[in-house]
């Protein structure tokens, strides 16, 4: 049975168990969030022992080369000595510049982070409440358009990090954040390709950044954005998006509600159903899917069946933390 050595302690790793599970079971506090290899919160560094390749998937080459790996994805075949990552693994300091309500459960948080450097609209960052507890939030800002990084944070009942952001975080506070992560962003590979953007709840955040970034980069093809919520008061940035669609003939914005009768330009139904009703075939489209994991999972399947190529499906499921 492989053993995990951390500091002066040794933890046995049961058959098929990940390093994260073994350490957590042994009472060690390791930050984690998605437990699916997405958020990179559980980053550790191996100082001795072989690192399974699968546990380095998605990491930068520079991190791989120095033995960093994702503890939630690491099922070791042999014993390893590991350590917590140093600050060089990517933690930065950001200052809160504004907190603005977007609707009754979502706030926009503007962060100034001089060390962030390049990022892409639609990527996400991890926000640390303290040394061990962090959550991922998508970037609604676009680097060339917005002075600050912007997040849209929905308050989850009993939520440790979203509750802290809503109730305690103040303008002027400093918070630790990760470098930008994720592959759900726009690139100007084919400016005429039609784009389909589907999001639920605060899943609008990355889409808002991607949409504006695509226009800024000169995207010419049609862009159809479907944003869904159960009720009208769960939608937000409605006027801004209507104005954007008014200014750009290629942009089509469809706010959708699934649990109440629609009024005005609101559409009735779930975003995926409404979008596929409008476009039953999406061969040749590039699609971006963000928000509730069930929506993202089912949209991937149904868009593929409707003709979208797998390489053209970009997604960020807002996976809940298991920790
Ligand atoms: C790549 C990625 C990007 C993300 N981007 C965003 C974003 O832009 N905006 C945003 O608001 N969130 C986003 N999330 C979700 C976010 O990371 C947190 O999961 C969320 O804020 C809840 O964390 P918490 O600590 O407040 O709740 P926790 O303390 O983890 O959970 C408290 C309780 O609430 C439940 N719970 C957790 N999440 C939800 C939920 N969504 N709905 C209902 N119950 C829930 C838990 O099961 C638990 O019982 C993203 C997640 C990922 C993986
Ligand atoms: S990548 Fe391991 S907890 Fe998210």
* CATH topology group of the largest domain: Rossmann fold
Count the DSSP helices: 7
Overall CATH class of the largest domain = Alpha Beta
Strand content: 25-35%
Name the descriptors.
binds flavin-adenine dinucleotide; Elongation Factor Tu (Ef-tu), domain 3; 28% strand; globular; Cbr1-like_FAD-bd_dom; oxidoreductase activity; Rossmann fold; binds FE2/S2 (inorganic) cluster; FNR_nucleotide-bd; alpha/beta
Describe the model.
This is Oxygenase. InterPro entries: 2Fe-2S_ferredoxin-like_sf (IPR036010), 2Fe-2S_ferredoxin-type (IPR001041), Beta-grasp_dom_sf (IPR012675), Cbr1-like_FAD-bd_dom (IPR008333), FAD-bd_FR_type (IPR017927), Flavoprot_Pyr_Nucl_cyt_Rdtase (IPR001709), FNR_nucleotide-bd (IPR039261), MRET (IPR050415). GO terms for molecular function: iron-sulfur cluster binding; oxidoreductase activity. The chain is of the alpha/beta class and 323 residues long. It has helices at 19-25, 61-65, 160-167, 204-216, 238-247, 271-278, 293-305, and strands at residues 3-6, 9-12, 43-48, 68-70, 80-83, 92-101, 106-112, 124-128, 134-138, 149-154, 174-177, 195-200, 223-229, 251-257, 267-268, 286-291, 313-317. Strands 9-8-11-6-7-10 form a six-stranded antiparallel sheet. The protein has a six-stranded parallel sheet with strand order 15-14-13-12-16-17, with helices on both faces. The chain has a five-stranded mixed sheet with strand order 2-1-5-3-4. A hairpin with a 4-residue loop joins strand 6 and strand 7. It starts with a strand and ends in a 6-residue tail after the last strand. Bound molecules: flavin-adenine dinucleotide and FE2/S2 (inorganic) cluster.
């Amino acid at each position: 049975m492989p053993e995990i050595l951390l500091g002066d302690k040794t933890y046995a790793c049961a058959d098929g168990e990940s390093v994260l599970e073994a350490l957590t079971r042994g009472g060690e506090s390791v930050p984690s969030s998605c437990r699916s290899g997405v958020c990179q919160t559980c980053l550790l560094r191996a100082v001795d022992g072989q690192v399974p390749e699968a546990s380095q998937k998605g990491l930068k080459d520079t991190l791989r080369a120095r033995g960093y790996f994702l503890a939630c994805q690491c099922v070791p075949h042999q014993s390893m000595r590991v350590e917590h990552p140093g600050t060089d693994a990517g933690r930065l300091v950001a200052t809160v510049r504004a907190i603005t309500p977007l609707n009754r459960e979502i706030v926009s948080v503007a962060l100034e982070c001089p060390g962030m450097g390049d990022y892409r609209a639609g990527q996400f960052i991890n926000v640390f409440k303290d040394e061990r507890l962090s959550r991922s939030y998508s970037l609604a800002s676009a680097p060339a358009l917005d002075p600050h990084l912007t997040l849209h944070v929905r308050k989850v009942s009993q939520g440790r990090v979203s509750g802290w952001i809503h109730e305690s975080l103040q303008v002027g506070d400093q918070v630790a954040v990760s470098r930008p992560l994720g592959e759900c962003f726009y690139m100007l590979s084919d400016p005429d390709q039609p784009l389909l953007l589907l999001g639920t709840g605060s899943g609008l955040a990355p889409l808002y950044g991607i949409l504006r970034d695509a226009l800024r980069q000169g995207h010419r093809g049609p862009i159809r954005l479907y944003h869904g919520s159960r009720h009208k008061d769960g939608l937000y940035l409605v006027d801004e998006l209507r104005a954007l669609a008014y200014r750009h003939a290629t942009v089509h914005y469809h706010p959708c509600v699934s649990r109440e009768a629609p009024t005005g330009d609101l559409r009735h139904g779930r975003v995926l159903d409404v979008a596929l009703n409008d476009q039953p075939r999406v061969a040749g489209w590039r699609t971006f899917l963000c928000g509730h994991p069930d929506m993202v999972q089912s949209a991937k399947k149904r868009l593929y069946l409707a003709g979208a190529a797998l390489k053209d499906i970009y997604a960020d499921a807002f996976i809940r933390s298991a920790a």
